[in-house]
Amino acid sequence: MTDTAVFRPGLLAGQVAVITGGGTGIGFGIAELLAQLGAHVVLASRKPAHLDPAVEKIRNAGGSASAVAVDVRDADRVKTMVDSVQSEHGRIDILVNNAAGNFYAPSETLSANAWKSVIEIDLYGTFFCSQAVAPIMRQSGGGRIINISMTLHYRGWPQMAHATAAKAGIDALTRTLAMEWAPHGIRVNAIAPGPIPTEGVRKAFTPPPNSEGVVDLFAEERAMSAYAKRAIPLGRWGSPADIANMVAFLVSPAGDWITGSIMVVDGGEWLSRGQSN
Ligand code: NAP
Fold first, then answer.
1. Which residues, listed in sequence order, are joined to residue 145 by a DSSP beta bridge?
2. pLDDT per residue as tens digits for the range 52-61
3. What is the CATH architecture of 8-272?
4. CA 181 to chain centre
5. In this structure, how many other beta carbons lie within 10 angstroms of the beta carbon of residue 52?
6. Which of 76, 95, 106, 201 has its CA 20 to 30 A from that of 18?
């Protein structure tokens, strides 16, 4: 739960925000904060097992939330999802393109399917969702799109060819759509998070089970804490709230003159990478 004290209560009252991948990790943190600030949040992803508990949690905290099932790789299903949100709520003010697929894989043996899948979720999904909401935002005089990128493609990141290529494309898309849609009042920005220990990221730091099948969780904590000390100048891992705060700033009136920007929120990690690794 984010400390919303820096944002005015009711800042986003009456607004509707669609957050892809909003049921888990960073997307859920973003949904939680936008709902706390008064927006109705629509969580959009494939699995009810991710969406339903997330909606319930936001409602239990007093927020307004709903879920729609969608696979962002499929342009027709994305259009149907966006149309259904529009017909139910009458508007879409904010889109957060957060859904992504990520896993480490050596490029030499990365299957065509795995490559295609990540490019389609990250890059195609971002484009399809943006394209589907644009006419709705345009008709209502404007809107805000936030794309969740990363920093790993700034210098390259072994075994992440698919994700780094997709996110580089998302950065380019952010700038191009910002230019193209500025005359319609649609602001398009991106956020490049540093390491946030969501479930998927933690797995990379989890040691294999010992001979009795027990995982040493202290070893995981030690590995994570060592990484923070070694590689993150601000000395700690990020949280979904760190990213959510930047989303809230960008979609608020404080961001009114910001478009086509890629905001790095990473504790200084990518700048220090050359020195720390
Ligand atoms: P996560 O918890 O694994 O979230 C990914 C989300 O995407 C899930 O909710 C998943 O929901 C959804 N998704 C996957 N495939 C989809 C599809 N085909 N259609 C619709 N939704 C789909 O990951 P995370 O760590 O929070 O990452 C969120 C974003 O931050 C991603 O864009 C990631 O690249 C970026 N990022 C994360 C970090 C980090 O350290 N965690 C760092 C830099 C950037 P379903 O399974 O229900 O579809």
1. 95, 188
2. 999 999 999 9
3. 3-Layer(aba) Sandwich (3.40)
4. 21
5. 13
6. 201
CA dist 86 and 108 (Å) reads 44
Task: Say if CB 185 and CB 142 are below 8 A apart.
Answer: yes
Q: Round to whole Å and give the CA distance between 164 and 237.
A: 21
Q: Tens digits of per-residue pLDDT, 158-210?
A: 999 999 999 999 999 999 999 999 999 999 999 999 999 988 777 767 777 88
Virtual torsion, Cα 118, 120, 123, 129, nearest 10 deg: -130
Structure tokens at 48: 């009810």
Residue 25 Cα, ligand 1 centroid: separation in angstroms? 7
Say if residues 123 and 170 touch (Cβ distance below 8 Å). Answer: yes
223 token code pair? 């590995």
The answer, yes or no, to whether any atom of ligand 1 lies below 6 A from the CB of 25, is: yes
* Dihedral pair phi/psi, residue 100, rounded to 5°: -160, 160
Q: Is the CB of 152 under 6 A from ligand 1?
A: no
**CA-to-CA distance for 104 and 184, rounded, in angstroms?**
39
- Closest to 259 (Cα-Cα) out of 137, 76, 125: 137
**Tokens (6 digits) for 272:** 């220090």
Mutation probe of ligand 1 site: the residue of 32, 77, 198 with most atoms within 8 A of C-beta: 198
Rounded to the nearest angstrom, the distance between the alpha carbon of 101 and the centre of ligand 1 is: 6
